[in-house]
Amino acid sequence: MTVARHLSLAVPLLAVLAAARLERNRDARAAALLAFVAGAVGIAALDEAARRTGWYTFAPVRGAYRGLPVDLWIGWAALWGPLPVLLRRVLPLPLALGLLLWLDAVAMPALHPLVRLGPHWLLGEAAGLLAVALPAQLLGRWCADRRHLAARALLQVGLFATLLLWFVPTLAFELGDGSWAGLTGLPPSRLLLAGQVVLLVATPALAAVREFAVRGGGTPYPWDPPRRLVTTGPYAYLANPMQFGAVALVLLTAAATGSLALAGAGATAVAFAAAVAGPHEEHDLAGRYPEDWRAYRRRVRNWWPRWRPYVSGPPAILWLDADCGPCAAVWRFLARRHPAGLVLRPASAYEGVLRRAEYAGGDGHRERGVAAVARALEHVHLGWALAGWTLRLPGVAWLAQLVTDAMIAPPRPASDRRAGQAGTREARATEAGTREAEAGRAGTRGEGCPTPSSASWTVPSPRSASTASPGSRPVRSPPPPG
Prior knowledge:
The chain has about 475 residues and is mainly α. The protein folds into three domains: about 1-145, no CATH class; about 160-305, Four Helix Bundle (Hemerythrin (Met), subunit A), CATH 1.20.120.1630; about 315-410, no CATH class. The chain has helices spanning about 1-20, 25-55, 70-80, 80-85, 95-110, 120-145, 150-175, 180-185, 190-215, 240-255, 260-290, 290-300, 325-335, 370-375, 380-390, 395-410, 415-440, and strands at about 55-60, 65, 70, 115, 315-320, 340-345, 360, 365-370. The strands form three sheets. A four-stranded mixed beta sheet has the order 6-5-7-8, covered by helices on one side. The longest helix is centred in the middle third of the chain and has 29 residues, at about 190-215. The radius of gyration is 37 Å and the shape is elongated. The termini are far apart.
C-alpha cells in the first residue's frame, strides 16, 4: 500500500514536469497551475460526496486530510488538472476526458485495499469527471489560450468562492478550532439572512471581477490580468476591492463559526497581500502604466475606501428622456447630488434611436436601461455605488429591468418621437409657404403685395363719399323683398 501511494504521487508529477518542458509559454504554465488548484479543490469536494453516497472510501492511513490520502490527492489533481492542459495541443478535450475515465477505471480497482470501491463507484467517477475534471480543463485551456473571457472569469469566481467559503474554513476547522455547526444549526430564516449578508459583503468584489472583464479585458488571476488599467467601478473607491472582499468574507465566516484559526488565516492573508502581493502588483502596474498608476495610487488607498469616486479621463455620459416621468426623476435625483465625472444629456442630444436610458463611459463602454442608471450611481458616492453594484448583479439586473419595463418605464423610441415632431413642424412650414405663394399669384402680375400678410387693421374704415349729383333729391331705398 505504501508503494502504491508513492507511485500515485510520483508518476503524475513526473508526467506534469515532462509536459511543462514541452510547453514553454508562461501563460500556459500559469493556467496549468490554476487548473491544478481547481482539480484539488474539486477532488476534496468529490471525496466528501463519495463518503456520503458510498461511491468509494479510503483505508485509514497517516498523512490524510479528512480521510483522503494527501499523496493520492495531489497525484489525482495533477492528472485531472495541469497535465491535459499542458498537452492541449495534441490532446483534445474529449480525448483527454476519455483517457482520464479509462485510467481511473483501471487504477481505482488496482489500488485496493487503499481504495474501497462501492457498488456504484463508476457513477461517482463519471460525476467527478463532469463536475471536477471538465471545469478544471475548461478553465485551464481557456486561460492558456485567452479565449472565452466571460466564461473563464465566471469559472474563476466559482473556484475562488469555493476556496474562500468552503475549503479554507474546512481546512481551518480540521487543523485548528471551530466547525460548521455554528451555521448549520441556525434556523432557515437566519441562514437566509446570513446568506444576504455574505452577498452584500461580496458584492464589491463581484463588481470588481466584472469590471476587470468588461472594461479591462482580463480576470482576477494574476497571470491572466486586464489589458488596460482599470480605475472605474469599485476601483474608483478602493485599490484592491477583491482582496478586501476576500478577507472580509473569511473574517465574517470566522465570527459566525467561532474559529480563531480561521481569523488567523484572514490576518495572514492581509499580511501576505501587504508584504508580497501588493509590492509585486505595484511593480508590475507601475512598469506598464507609469503616470496613470502613480496618479491613481496618490488618490486611492488599498484598504480604506474613498467616499467620492476617483475620476480620470473623459467624463461619462448618461442620456435620459426628459419626456419620461421616471427618467426625469432620475435626472433630478442625480443632478442634486453632483455626480463626479458624469454628464447628464437629454435624449434630443443622442444620435440614433434611444429606447432606454444609456450610459457611455469615457473609454467607450456602454450600458442600457437599469444597468445604465446603476452605472451612474457609481459617480455619486460609496453608498449609492454599492446600491448600483447590487443592481448589476446577475439575476438582479435582469429582474430589475423586467419590472422596470413592465411597470415603471417601458422602452420607447425617444428619437422617433422627436423625428415625428420635427416632421410636423416641417409640414406646417410647407403649408404656410404654399398659402403665401397662392396669395402672391392672386395679386397683379409682376407686382408685390402692397400690404404684408402679417399686417392687420384695428381702426374703423372711413365712410365712403356719395357719388350722387349735388342737385338730386334723396330717394328712400325700396323695402327688401318679401
